[in-house]
Amino acid sequence: MKSHNVAVIGCGIWGKNVVRNFYNLNALNTVCDLDEENRLKLKEMYPDINITDNSDAVLQNPEIDAVAVVTPSHTHYKIVKKAIESGKHVYVEKPISTVAAEAKDLAAIAEKNNMVLMVGHLLMYHPAVNRLKMLIEEGALGDIRYVQSDRLNINHFKNDRSVMWDLAPHDVSMTSYVLGKEPVRVISAVGASSDNNDIMDITHVTIEYEDNIIAHISDSWIHPQKRVNLLVRGTKATAIFDDTLAENKLQIFESSSPSVSKTEILDYIEIEPLKLECQHFLNCIEQGKQARSDGHNGFNVVKVLEEAEKIMLGDRVKSLDNVNFSLSRSKR
Q1: Do 223 and 111 fall within a single domain?
Q2: Number of domains comprising the chain
Q3: How far is the CA of 108 from the CAs of 116, 220, 287, 321, in angstroms?
Q4: Which of 307, 331, 66 is nearest to 168 (CA)?
Q5: I need a surface site. Which of 94, 220, 287, 300 has the fewest CB within 10 A?
Q6: Strands, E, within the chain: which ranges?
């Protein structure tokens, strides 16, 4: 992978972080944003980087090998499809789409064109989450029985159609990743709007995973105290990952003790997850391999959330057994 060949399309609140990391990895060529004020600020911060408001010009530039799409979720399908068909590897912020059929289509197009397609499921790259995954695989927690993921915060912008589409991709992708299991069905899903409009800012989704593991996911845009917790309950021990803590984010508790006494605080390497995610994208391009959070992974997450939204809107609970989660993927 040559240096200076990644373009970032969309440089808003989160996009600026993506720009910073690709720049620090010596891989940033261009940033593209429609907002003139954003472009002026970025030019001051990165005077040696190309700045534009023309995404078509970015995709037509032969010097650019890859693009990072950090635009609103409803725009992802059109931009990502065009980028892949223009011969660019693509990193796209979660969710890959808000329509499962579109997500599946993008994964197929990327495979057909032999391009890397990676979804920004950030927590799959978090060092503490990967340490937790190792614990589960080693059997340190015993047989897993229950998972609970709470992602609560204040958001005054509400630029997605519900908090579920904004936050739950993290919860679903992280849960599936640490368990190493596929979702079977959405058991229940409810949502509410604190403003009595069509935008749900509180959602609760319960999912059954393989081996009868139940996962409950709560997301909120109206919680005054930030909470980012993942609880994994096993027959031997319970692990809690708390991403709001400055240190000791991953702790283990005895499942059998009535007092639930703390048994261990686990060590892991402290590296910014987004840096690891961006580096993984570059490595996949260099080595010609599938990303950990590839298009298949993005489709799985969107399918679950799409079914959950149907239930919230009144549709009956539907099994995911008949959904083809396995997209054919050729080895590279």
Answers
A1: no
A2: 2
A3: 11, 33, 20, 21
A4: 307
A5: 287
A6: 6-9, 28-32, 50-52, 66-69, 89-93, 117-120, 144-154, 183-192, 202-209, 213-220, 222-234, 237-242, 250-254, 262-265
Q: Kindly state the DSSP code that residue 220 receives in the 8-state scheme.
A: E
| Cα–Cα distance measured from residue 248 to residue 265, given in angstroms and rounded to the nearest whole number | 6
Parallel/antiparallel/unpaired status of strands 213-220 and 222-234? unpaired
Q: Which domain holds residue 45?
A: 6-121+274-293
- CB neighbour list of residue 165: distance below 8 Å, 6 or more residues apart: 73, 95, 98, 305, 309
Q: Which residue's structure tokens are 């590279």? A: 332
If asked whether residues 258 and 133 sit together in one domain, one would say yes
Q: How many CB atoms lie within 10 A of CB 246?
A: 5
Model confidence pLDDT, tens digit, residues 247-295: 889 999 987 766 555 566 666 778 899 999 999 999 999 999 999 999 9
Considering the entire predicted model, what is its pTM? 0.89
Collapsing DSSP states into helix, strand and coil, what is residue 242?
Answer: strand
Please state the length of the chain. 332
Residue 314: the pLDDT is 82
Q: How far apart are CA 38 and CA 34, in angstroms?
A: 8
DSSP 8-state assignment for residue 95: P
**Hey, what amino acid is at 20?**
R
Q: What is the CATH number of the domain that holds 181?
A: 3.30.360.10
pLDDT in tens, 100-110: 999 999 999 99
Residue 298 lies in a domain: no
* Cα-based angle 171, 314, 173 (whole degrees, multiple of 5): 15
The CA-to-CA distance between both ends of the chain, in Å, stands at 16
Q: Are residues 146 and 87 in the same domain?
A: no
Average pLDDT over residues 159-183: 94
Task: Write down the pLDDT at residue 264.
Answer: 64
